[in-house]
Structures are given as C-alpha cells and as structure tokens.
C-alpha cells in the first residue's frame, strides 16, 4: 500500500453551532440597524415635532397634569385594585369550596368577567346600574363607580391568580396545621393564605399595571374637569390646542408609573424563582 493511500484525507468542516448563532445574531443586528436608518431617513421629523413635541404647549400642562390627572389616575387604580383584591379573594375561596353551588357561581363569574371587554363593564356600571336601581347612588361618586368597574374586571383575574397560589402551597402545611389543633378556617387565614400571597405577589403587581392603563376608560362614566384622569386630560387639551402634544405628555406620565412597576414585577419574579430553587 502506498504512502498516499495511508494518509487520511482531512474532512471539510462547516460552521460550528456557536459560529452559526453568531452569524445569525449579526444578521439580525444588521437588519435592525438598517430598519432604524430607513425609518430615520424617510420619516418627516419636522411634522412630527410640530404635532407631538411642542415644548411651549407641554409646559402649559404642568403642574395640573401631575397634581390633578396623574393623582386621579393613581387613586382610581388603587381603589379598583383594593376592591378587586377583596372580591377576588372571596371568588377564589368560593372556587375552592367543597360546596358545589359556590364553585359554579365563582366559575360563571370568572368566565363572564374575563370574557367581556372592560369597556362594556364601565358602560354597565355607568348606565345599566342607574337604570336598574333608580335613585340609588354608588358610594364615593365617580371614585366609587371606577372602583366598582375596575374591581369587577380585576377580581376575575385575581381570583384565578389567588386560587393558583393557594393550590401551590404544599398540602403538608394544612395537614401540619390541623394536627396542631387549627381549624380549617384558622389554618387558611394564618398559614395557607399568607404563603399563597408571597407566591402571587408578582402577578398581582402585574395586574396593578394593567389596571393603571384600564383606568383611562373612566371617561365613559362622565367625569367633571376635576375628576379627569391622564387620558381624558390629554385628550381634552389636545382638542383645545389642535395639537397632539398633550397626548404624548400624558403617555409619558403613564410610563412614569408603569415602567418602575414593571421593574418591580421582574425583580419579584426573579426573587420568587430563586426561592424555588
């Protein structure tokens, strides 16, 4: 056998997986940069600035957009969150109840209020309730109506979140509590529910962010100038000035709250993930 036959011919090797991933990322970055360049070149920035970024008009919004609109938005959100959390807890316990009618009622409520748009709930609270109960006033005026509307929507989602948190608590916790002489109710209130809330804090905080944005639907309840929230405030000022700068500023005010809350949600989820390891 000749020496040439004994030599092993080198095999042609392609790109490794790491190299392929690097090439793929490079292509994605290149496409992203190209899209940004195309957008910056083709957009009419002067018209956008005239319509959305009038500095003088933006200054006129302060301090009312903070002291009035943002304040009302926060109050509406917190009132809806508190009512929704209380109602959601009741619905979650009904969902877990051994009594059949309680479970059925809770299931029907969750399916209905998770399936209906929040806008319809606001219209129902603002129009249907006064028609169904003439002369009856919801306590708290506009704040009470918003708390009811937002709470009815939020409770359906919170109930499922709380139920999942309760079921995530190891069954041994209840068994240990009962062996120590705790009643079922006392064990739930003292041991199970506190542990469940530690589990569900991240999704509940995320629900708070969603409610903060849904509070913009308060305009369908008919509010006074002093009861306007961010979206209504920006819309009214945009109509008066024939310019969209107030809407942009209102959107930035939303971000002042939702971005920090989103960061809190991510931190809580990270801590919850570390605790489960």
UniProtKB/TrEMBL annotation:
Localization in the cell: Cell membrane
InterPro entries from the UniProt entry: AA_ABC_transptr_permease_3TM (IPR010065), ArtM/GltK/GlnP/TcyL/YhdX-like (IPR043429), MetI-like (IPR000515), MetI-like_sf (IPR035906)
Annotated membrane topology: Multi-pass membrane protein
Keywords annotated in UniProt: Amino-acid transport, Cell membrane, Membrane, Transmembrane, Transmembrane helix, Transport
Record field: transmembrane: 26-43, 74-94, 115-134, 247-265
Superkingdom per UniProt: Bacteria
UniProt keyword annotation of Cell membrane present: yes
Ranges for domain ABC transmembrane type-1: 70-265
Pfam family, one: BPD_transp_1
Family, as annotated: Belongs to the binding-protein-dependent transport system permease family. HisMQ subfamily.
Listed NCBIfam families: HEQRo_perm_3TM
Protein name as catalogued: ABC transmembrane type-1 domain-containing protein
Taxonomic source organism: Streptomyces vastus
